[in-house]
User: Which sequence fits this backbone?
């Protein structure tokens, strides 16, 4: 601990105080935990590569990557704002900046507004169809935290928000939404429901005590079976997508790797131990990566 940490706040140098505020803002936006960015980004990258025939427009790619980071950060802020009086009662979340009162509500609101303004500027670089879809995506992101108060399966609602980059990517590159868009969107929705249920299993005991709803609670002792069924459904949707795109062995190898990772996740959660469930959740980063590599290699090695 730095000597200034134990001193009165106004005794510390201005630069130090500014640095501490920026550090808290980074924690509020979860920049220290990029797993959420990757999980949000992978389906968007799948869509950009398919819609761009393996060569997405660099400008659009940059806009989507930056937009993903910004909107994920904004989503974390609005989530923590809504949960600021609940998070102190959950072991995993009690040290979040808003829950621990290290960041004020006003600061959080101003940072959220700034991120939304940046996101709006980014999406105005794209076409009108994408802009309209972005408005829907923003509504899903902002409304999600409130659904946890009354909707029994908030993970499903989050899945819609986290997968909305798929139709946006197709719209940005093609100006339309071909049938494959919705097959990929369905696969992404199922996948998000899978990994966010794993995430909810970490907090199940705390959520039961404080009355927060989650799919982990609804599924109860059928959680592993239902997760397994959803994993199979996600892979089936991706197989159908690959067939419609005439993908070959490279893509199938990516799906096989994802299937192996799903089996590993089932092994991890066999005893429903919270830390093992968290590891299973984090492992989904490699699922998204495997599928993307399979898609990318299809275009790299595809014969003209």
Assistant:
């Amino acid at each position: 601990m730095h000597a200034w940490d134990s001193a009165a706040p106004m005794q510390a140098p201005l630069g130090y105080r500014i640095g501490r505020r920026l550090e808290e803002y980074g924690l509020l936006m979860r920049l220290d935990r990029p797993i959420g960015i990757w999980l949000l980004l992978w389906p968007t990258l799948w869509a950009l590569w398919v819609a761009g025939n393996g060569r997405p427009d660099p400008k659009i790619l940059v806009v989507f990557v930056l937009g993903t980071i910004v909107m994920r950060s904004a989503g974390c802020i609005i989530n923590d704002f809504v949960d600021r009086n609940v998070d102190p009662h959950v072991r995993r979340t009690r040290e979040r900046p808003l829950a621990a009162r290290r960041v004020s509500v006003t600061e959080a609101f101003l940072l959220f507004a700034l991120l939304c303004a940046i996101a709006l500027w980014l999406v105005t670089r794209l076409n009108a169809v994408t802009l309209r879809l972005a408005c829907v995506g923003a509504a899903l992101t902002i409304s999600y935290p409130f659904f946890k108060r009354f909707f029994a399966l908030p993970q499903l609602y989050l899945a819609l928000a986290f997968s909305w980059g798929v139709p946006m990517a197709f719209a940005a590159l093609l100006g339309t939404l071909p049938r494959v868009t919705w097959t990929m969107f369905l696969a992404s929705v199922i996948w998000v429901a899978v990994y966010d249920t794993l995430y909810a299993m970490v907090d199940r005991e705390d959520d039961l005590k404080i009355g927060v709803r989650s799919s982990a609670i609804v599924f109860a002792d059928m959680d592993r079976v239902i997760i397994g069924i959803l994993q199979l459904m996600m892979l089936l949707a991706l197989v159908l997508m690959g067939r419609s795109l005439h993908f070959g062995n490279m893509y199938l190898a990516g799906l096989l790797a994802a299937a192996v990772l799903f089996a590993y996740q089932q092994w991890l959660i066999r005893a429903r131990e919270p830390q093992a469930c968290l590891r299973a959740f984090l492992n989904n980063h490699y699922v998204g990566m495997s599928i993307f590599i399979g898609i990318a290699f299809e275009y790299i090695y595809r014969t003209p």
Observations:
- The longest helix spans residues 274-300.
- The CA atoms of residues 183 and 280 lie 25 Å apart.
